[in-house]
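Hey, I'm writing a tutorial for new members on how sequence and structure tokens pair up, and I'd like a real worked example in the thread rather than a made-up one. If someone can provide the structure for the chain below, I'll link this post from the tutorial.
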Amino acid sequence: HSCFVQKAVVSTQSTGVSEENENMIEVPVAKHGRYIVCFDPLDGSSNIDCLVSIGSIFGIYRRDTEGPATEADCLLPGNKLVAAGYCVFGTACMMVLSTGNGVNGFTLDPSIGEFILTAANMTMPKKGKIYSTNEGNAKYMDEKLQRYLHDCKFPKDGGKPKSSRYVGSMVADVHRTISYGGVFMYPSNSQSPNGKLRLLYECNPMAYIVEQAGGKAVTGRGDERVLDVVPTQLHQRVPIYLGSADDIDEILSYFKE
């Protein structure tokens, strides 16, 4: 799968960054083009053997330099993206895409071998009832985040608790979050101070799509947007909280206490 994506990058005259490659994917100078593609070719690959939904994530930038591409050309913040998307490989194969003017979902019709528009102008609920994170790491999390998770299960007002859903494939968890609302998070903790997910080809594309769908995506460091983080390394990690706007604001309110 990774080899297929790399060939696509070269054939479209792009420079690429992949989760599977330590260095950037070099393209012959004669084929250098206008775009830089960052991608995770198989997100959630550890779930393959148990048949859980997995996927692919990609983000596309426009090059603003001339001459041979360098690593510095790839170190762009997410607010420079011109397009981003992901494919979910589950009960159906669906591609979710944004080119900066909303979000649309296309489902593969195997009978004709084409992706059909099945979810036009996808938008997130402003507030959801689901939170998604690996609570097995709770002992390592910041106390304020632990308090938020406690209040999700035992609301201060005595109301109905939020539902917990966590697949462990970012594509699957984020797709559900966009569809139903709520929040997905992979925070920093004492064991992983910068979080686990990679900025260029996981967090930035997903943050771009979520914002285009009316949600928010932040790092938890003040009000910092994920899309405003300027990368310094190809495989840089960053904490991420993304989802319905009101739910993200609620989490940030705990951090400000």
